Amino acid sequence: MTRHIRHAQYFCALLLVALLVNAARVQVVQAPSYDRNPANRRPDIARYEQPRGDIWVGGRPVTGSRDTREHLRYERIYTDGPMYAPVTGFASQLYGTTLLESSEDGVLSGADPMLAPFPLWNDFTRARNAGGDVVTTLNPAAQEAAYRGLSGHKGAVAALEPSTGRILALVSAPSYDPQPLSGNGSAAARAWRRLTADKDKPMLNRAVRQTYPPGSTFKVVTAAAALDSGVVTDLDAPTDSPAPYRLPGTRTRLTNASKGCADASVREAFTFSCNTVFAKLGVEVGAADMTASAQAFGFNNGELRVPFPVARSTFDTTLDEAQLALSSIGQYNTRATPLQMAMVAAAVANGGQVRDPYLVERTTRPGGSTLAAAGSRPIRQAMYPSTAGLLRAMMRDVVEYGGGRKAAIRGAQVGGKTGTAQHGLGNSGIPYAWFISWAQGEGDLLPRVAVAVVMEDAEAKRGDISGGGDAAPIARAVMEAVLKSP
Amino acid sequence: MSKAGITVVTADPPAPAVRRLPRRRGIELALIVLAVLLSVYGYCAVGLARYGTLPPGAAGYGAGLGVLALMAHLTVRLRAPYADPLLLPIGVLLNGLGLVLIYRLDLETPGDRAAPAQLVWSTLGVALFILVGLLLRDHRVLQRYTYVCVVAALVLLTLPILFPAVNGARIWIRIAGFSIQPGEFAKVLLAVFFAAYLAANRNALAYTGRRVWKLQLPTGRVLGPIVAVWLVSVGVLILERDLGTSLLFFGLFVVLLYVATGRTGWIAVGLLLAALGAVAVGRLEPHVHSRIETWLHPFASIEAGEGANQLAQSLFAFAEGGMLGTGLGLGHSFLIGFAVKSDFILATAGEELGLAGIGAVFLLYGLLVERGFRAGIAQREPFGRLLAVGLASLVALQVFVIAGGVTGLIPLTGMAMPFLAQGGSSVVTNWAIVALLVRVSDSARRSRDEQDVP
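Output (C-alpha cells, whole complex):
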C-alpha cells in the first residue's frame, strides 16, 4: 500500500509542478502580451491615477486636472479651451490625445523615463512619476487678439518670432472646447459625435494641418527667387510684361484685378499685386530655381514638427511653363499652411534666414526644474540678405501705399503682402483671403513678429484683393499685441 | 493519555539508551508565531499602501488570529503531542493570508465587507479544530460511523436542491442571513466513508471477482455500494451544476480506490469514465460547454467587442503581478468583479504578491498535502492511511482544480481556494481536514513511540 501512496504523492507533485509552470507562463512569459491587451484597463487606470502635468502659456497654466473619484481618476480641464485648443489639442480618456497633449504626452503623463530620479528606477519600484509641465512659446495677448479677430469666421492665424522661430500665436477658427472630450462617459461620446459630425470641422487645426493655395502672398517667394537668381536686378525697371498675359503654350489669358500692370516695375507689381508680372517672372526664373527657392523657405518639407507634425506645404516640381506661371502666383498645385506663410514673412523680416518654428520653450519636472529646453533651431538661408532687404522695403510699400494699409501700426515698421486665392472647381469657391506681414517696433533692433492670416469666408467679391480688407486688421491686432508685450 | 514512558530513567549507563521521538511542539509554536506575524505584516502592508498609516484594526486582528492559533496549539499540545508540527502553522498562515486578501478587497467594495464574517467563520473553524482535537481521541472511532457518514453526506448534497439557485448553481442554503455550502462538509464525510469502506473491503476488491483479459473485476456485492454512492453524489452535483466539486469527488474516488487495491486497472477505468463523462457533459450541458470555450479562447469575448470576461480579467491580474507583484493593496484585481473574493481570490494574490507570492502559496499547499501523505505512510492500519491520503488528496485536487481554473490551465469550475477564499463552509471544512490530519499524524508517531519504549 505504501508504494501506491507514493504513486498518489507523485501525482500530486505533478499537479503542483503543473500549477507552478503555468503560473510562470501567465505571469512572466505571456504577461507582456496580456498587459498590452486593449481590454486590460490597468494601463489606463495607472495613467489617470495622478493629475496630468500642465501646459503653460505666458506664466500661467491653461490646463488642469479634476479628481473624479472614478476608476479613471483624473480628468483634463482647460481654461480658455477654445482659444488654446489648436495648441493643446485634447486629452480624452476615450479618444486619446492630439497636438501638444499628444506629442508631449510622455512628460505630461509622467511616463517619460527622463522624469525618473535614476535610470530604470521606476521599472524596479513600479512607481510612476508625477507629470511634468510643458511651457509654450505662445504670447497670450497675441493669441487672444488672433482668436478674437477670427471669431465668427473660418480661418487661421500663425505668428512667429522671426529671429528664433518661436510660435507666438496659433489659432484656428471655428474652434472647440476640448474639455467635454476629457472624460469617459456618454457626455464625452456625445461631444465627440457632435464635433466630428460638424461640417465646419472645428477640430481641424487649420493653422498647421490644413493647406491653402497661398495666392498672391506667394509672390514674396517668386520675387525672392527672381532677385536671387539675377533675373531681376532693378526693382524699378519696367518688366516688359503684357497684361493680360497669355500662359506659355496655351491660349489662356491671365488677367489682373488691378489696373496699370502692363510693363509695371517689380516694385509696382508687388505693391498692387500684378499677377501677369509675377507669372512671367516665375517662367523667366525657371522651374529649377523656383523650386529651390520655395524649398529653402520650407515648402515640400513633410518632416516639420513643432513638436506636433505640420502638414506639408507644396510647390510642384514637375511643371510645364504654364503651370509654372500659375504656381508662381500661388495657384495651381502650390499650397501652404498658414504657419508656412508666416515662415515666409519671417524670412524676409530676419534677413533671409528661416528657422524652423517651435512651440515648446521647455519642459519641466514637477518641481519646476528644467527637464529639456528648446535648443536653437538650425538656420536655412532662404535668400540673400540683400534680397531680404529689398523685399522688406517692398512689403512696407504694400502697407504704406498698396492693399495692406489696414495693417499699419503707428510708430512701427510694418511690411505685408495681401493675397486672394481662388480655388474650387473652375475657381467657383469663395476665394481665400490672405495676409502675411511682419512688424518692428520703434525701439526694436529686429522685427519682433511675423504673422500669416487666412480666412476661408472673407466678405470679398471674386478677384478683389480682399486679403487687405478682412485679414489685414487681424494681422495688425496680433502684431500690435506682440509689440506691446514687454 | 499515556505518558508513562516519559519518566524512564536514562541515567543507568549499561541500560540501552531509549530514544524518544521528539514531539516538536516548540517548533510548531515558533512557526505559529511566525505565521501570525506574517499575516499581521500583510494587514499592515495593505493599510500602509492605501492610506499611508497602519490600519486601526491591526492590533485587534493580530490578537484575534494569535489567540485562535494559540488555543489550537494548546489543544494539540494537550491531546495530540506527537502530531506533525507543520500542519497547524500552515493552516494558520493560509487562513491569515486569506483574511488579509479579503480585507484588502473589502477596500474596493465599501458597501460589502466580507472580512468580519470571514473572521467569525475562521473562529468557528478553529473551534471545530479544537472540538475534534478534544473529542476525537482516536481517528479509528470514525470507522464505526461509516454509514452514518455516507447518509449525512448524501443528505447534505441533496439539501440545496430545495433552495433557490444562486448565480446558476444550487449549492447554497441560506439560513438567517448566512449562506452555507453543505457540499463542502460532505467532502470530509465522503472521504471518511470511502476510507472506511475501502479499508474494510480492500482485499475483496483486489483479489476476488472475475478476471476479464488482464483486468480483475471485483464482485458486484463489494463494488456496488461504492459505485452507487459515487454515482449519486456525481449525479446530484450535475443537477446542482457544481462541476468543480463533482470533479473533486471523482478524483478522490479514483485515488482512494487505487491506493486501497493497488490495481492500475482502476485508474484506467476511472480515466475512461472521466473522459466519457467530460465529453458527454461538455457536449450536452451548455453551461459546461461555454466554460470549455472560454478556457480555449479566453479573449474571444474581447475580439467580439463584448469586453473582457472574468477569466481574461483574472489572467490580466496575474500578468500585472509579474515576478514580484504590485504590492499588497496596489493591484486592480477588483476588475474581475463577481467572485473576486471567493473563486478568484488567487488572482489578487497573483497580482499583488507576484509569481514569488503565489509560488510560495502553492508550495504551502504542497507542503500541507505532503505532510498529509506522510502521516498516511507512517500509519500502520489501513483506515488511517486511507483517511490521511484521502484528505490530503482532497486538498491537492481542490487547489489544482480552482488554481488551474483561474490561471487558465484547465476549464474554470467554481470552487473555493482552501483557507484563502471567502466562504464560511469552506474554511470550517478545511479546519476539520487539518484537525483530522493532526489526529492521524499524532496516532502514527505515538504508536511508534510507545512501541520503542521497553
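The first helix of chain A runs from residue 2 to 29.
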